[in-house]
Automatic annotation (TrEMBL), chain B:
<dbReference type="InterPro" id="IPR050763">
    <property type="entry name" value="ABC_transporter_ATP-binding"/>
</dbReference>
<dbReference type="InterPro" id="IPR003439">
    <property type="entry name" value="ABC_transporter-like_ATP-bd"/>
</dbReference>
<dbReference type="GO" id="GO:0005524">
    <property type="term" value="F:ATP binding"/>
</dbReference>
<keyword id="KW-0067">ATP-binding</keyword>
<keyword id="KW-0547">Nucleotide-binding</keyword>
<dbReference type="GO" id="GO:0016887">
    <property type="term" value="F:ATP hydrolysis activity"/>
</dbReference>
<dbReference type="InterPro" id="IPR027417">
    <property type="entry name" value="P-loop_NTPase"/>
</dbReference>
<dbReference type="InterPro" id="IPR003593">
    <property type="entry name" value="AAA+_ATPase"/>
</dbReference>
<keyword id="KW-0046">Antibiotic resistance</keyword>
<dbReference type="GO" id="GO:0005886">
    <property type="term" value="C:plasma membrane"/>
</dbReference>
<protein>
    <submittedName>
        <fullName>Multidrug ABC transporter ATP-binding protein</fullName>
    </submittedName>
</protein>
<keyword id="KW-0813">Transport</keyword>
<dbReference type="Pfam" id="PF00005">
    <property type="entry name" value="ABC_tran"/>
</dbReference>
<dbReference type="GO" id="GO:0046677">
    <property type="term" value="P:response to antibiotic"/>
</dbReference>
<feature type="domain" description="ABC transporter">
    <location>
        <begin position="10"/>
        <end position="244"/>
    </location>
</feature>
<dbReference type="InterPro" id="IPR017871">
    <property type="entry name" value="ABC_transporter-like_CS"/>
</dbReference>
Length: 278, 310
């Protein structure tokens, strides 16, 4: 129990301490508030041929994207904290590594919770037609966010254990996820894309998380716009769960292998390299 | 406790470490008693950090026997880990945390290992006062100066009241004032808790001030082992006599400076000798000589004949 308790504590303190710096707070608010601009622009538009608001069709995709950014966030934290010695510090105290991992997951969850709150709370006022009174909507929303986190955060641990440079993760991760979001059916039906793109996109979790989120927010008749004309909920849950299984099995293996090799000399060497680049 | 308080804190036999075909450690033997403060000296790349990291359990050795607090560091459990304090070379972690917050958090990991006779962790505010950071207790770690940061590292290293503390170049980058304060801090800690300390340093004066015993690591082996006085005495037989006759300067090494000077002054040129100076070989000379030999690829000679300086 001790690593769990200390891990939750370190996750909370880390998250709070980052978001009480000016830079950290600005990052959290600016990046997460960006989607609100699009919601404001499209607030009165409707999807042609239907009376479904464009805003309410974009909102689930944006939430899915914010959840999937936790892959990059988690990988980035892990690589950066490996570089600055946080991971080694954890290794130096009894049962520190277990608590470190709990802390890492806690920060990822808090980041996503903050991002979702920043978009969702104003979004509900901006966008008409969200079924606010429907308990099923809230249940589905929370359920898909949790499933998305389970699919994405271990994936971030896996990537952060393999890729050494936080700068590479930050750069490629941002453009990668943004690019992927553009072709994952979040903002228009993927049926307009080439078949092979559809295939690739439908292997990855973002498409399915977006589909799941839309099934929560949009009325039943909107399913007609999806591939196959249904929400395909069982397959959505199945594929997200499969990603979670992959991450939960491989993530700890790679993390343990990486952490075992961590030493002061390795930290010093990376510091030297990082300073040379500046 | 899994450890046997009677045995030495550290026992190392024929420790070897290779990185690929590069041999960093070629058979290190050392033993450190409980409560002893030992300095490990050596040039860059001699393997000081590698040695310390093997002892800390952060690195897997290639060969040899290693026992730290009665356990092999590669198989040390969490209880064993709780007995160690580690201060590594470059740490920039937890930059957004506040000093007190971080120290309290890291101290909490040691609480389950407390006993009636050995309470853990240190009370945080006392410890902050001990390392002189009371005024900075609510400062973010990233905003500390280099010296303050290092003192925090030391505080973190001892927050769990370790019985064995590793300090890897603790004062690198310190100004003389910060260095002196740091030395006082280590003295205080060692006196209070009878902690065993193994530190590495480049600084001979520091080794002399802090350590009961000095080990010199060169060419992957321990080439000298003794108190600062003993090491200096090993070469004290060798002294250097300098003098001048007219405009001509003379320098002669000798084993017996007194006899040499007597002969010099009573000899034929004795009347013309001015500016006579006898210099004992210092610890620094000993050290530099050993390192010089090592760098000339003569590590074996350095190891076998530490007492002879040319």
């Amino acid at each position: 129990m001790q690593p769990l308790r200390l891990g939750l504590a370190r996750g909370w303190v880390t998250w709070r301490s980052v978001n009480t710096t000016r830079e950290g707070l600005a990052n959290t608010i600016i990046w997460n508030a960006l989607p609100l601009v699009f919601l404001l622009i499209f607030r009165n538009a409707t999807i042609p041929g239907t009376d479904i608001s464009v805003g309410v069709s974009l909102l689930p995709g944006m939430l899915a994207m914010l959840v999937v950014f936790s892959v990059m966030g988690t990988a980035y934290y892990l690589a950066a904290e490996r570089e600055d010695g946080t991971l080694l510090r954890a290794k130096a105290v009894p049962r520190g590594t277990a608590a470190y991992v709990v802390g890492l997951l806690t920060v990822a969850v808090l980041d996503v919770a903050a991002a979702v709150a920043i978009v969702l709370v104003p979004g509900l006022f901006i966008v008409p037609g969200v079924p606010l009174g429907d308990a099923g909507m809230w249940l589905g929303l929370v359920g898909y966010i949790l499933l998305g986190l389970m699919a994405c955060v271990p994936l971030g641990v896996l990537i952060g254990s393999v890729v050494r440079s936080p700068r590479v993760i930050g750069g490629l991760g941002f453009f990668g996820i943004t690019g992927l979001a553009a072709i994952s059916g979040l903002f228009y039906p993927i049926a307009v894309l080439w078949d092979w793109v559809q295939w690739v996109v439908q292997i990855l979790p973002l498409y399915w998380l977006g589909l799941g989120m839309r099934s929560v927010f949009l009325p039943a008749e909107a399913a007609a716009l999806e591939s196959g004309g249904t929400w395909n909920t069982p397959l959505t849950i199945g594929i997200l769960a499969a990603w979670a299984v992959i991450g939960f099995v491989l993530g700890p293996v790679l993390l343990r292998r990486m952490a075992r090799r961590e030493s002061g000399a390795a930290v010093a060497e990376r510091r030297r390299q990082a300073l040379q680049r500046v | 406790m899994a450890t046997t308080p009677a045995g030495p804190a550290i026992r190392v036999g024929d420790l070897r470490m290779n990185y690929g075909r590069h041999e960093v450690l070629r058979g290190v033997d050392l033993e450190i008693r409980r409560g002893e403060v030992v300095a490990l000296l050596g040039p860059n790349g001699a393997g000081k950090t590698t040695t310390i990291e093997i002892l800390e359990g952060f690195r897997t050795r290639s060969a040899g026997e290693v026992e730290v607090l009665g356990e092999d560091p590669e198989h040390g459990d969490e209880r064993w880990r709780a007995e160690l304090g580690v201060v590594l070379q470059s740490w920039r972690d937890h930059a957004t945390w506040r000093v007190r917050e971080l120290l309290a958090h890291l101290g909490a990991y040691y609480a389950p290992y407390a006993t009636a006779s050995h309470p853990r962790p240190h009370p945080v505010d006392d410890l902050i006062a001990t390392v002189g950071l009371t005024a900075s207790a609510n400062t973010r770690v990233g905003a500390l100066s280099g010296g303050q940061r290092r003192r925090l590292d030391v505080a973190i290293g001892i927050v769990g009241r370790p019985s064995l503390l590793f300090l890897d170049e603790p004062t690198a980058g310190f100004d003389p004032h910060a260095r002196r304060e740091f030395h006082e801090l280590v003295h205080r800690l060692v006196d209070d808790d009878a902690t065993t300390v193994l530190l590495t340093t480049h600084d001979l004066a520091e080794a002399e001030i802090l350590a009961d015993r000095i080990l010199i690591l060169a060419g992957g082996r321990i080439v000298a082992d003794g108190t600062a006085d003993a090491l200096a005495r090993q070469v004290a037989g060798r002294a250097e006599v300098r003098w001048r006759i007219g405009e001509e300067k003379f320098v002669r090494p000798t084993d017996d400076a007194t006899a040499f000077v007597r002969d010099l002054l009573t000899g034929p040129d004795g009347a013309g000798v001015v500016d006579l100076e006898v210099r004992r070989t210092s610890l620094e000379d000993t050290y530099l000589e050993m390192i010089r030999r090592h760098e000339h690829g003569d590590a074996a000679a350095a190891a076998l004949e530490p007492a002879v300086a040319s």
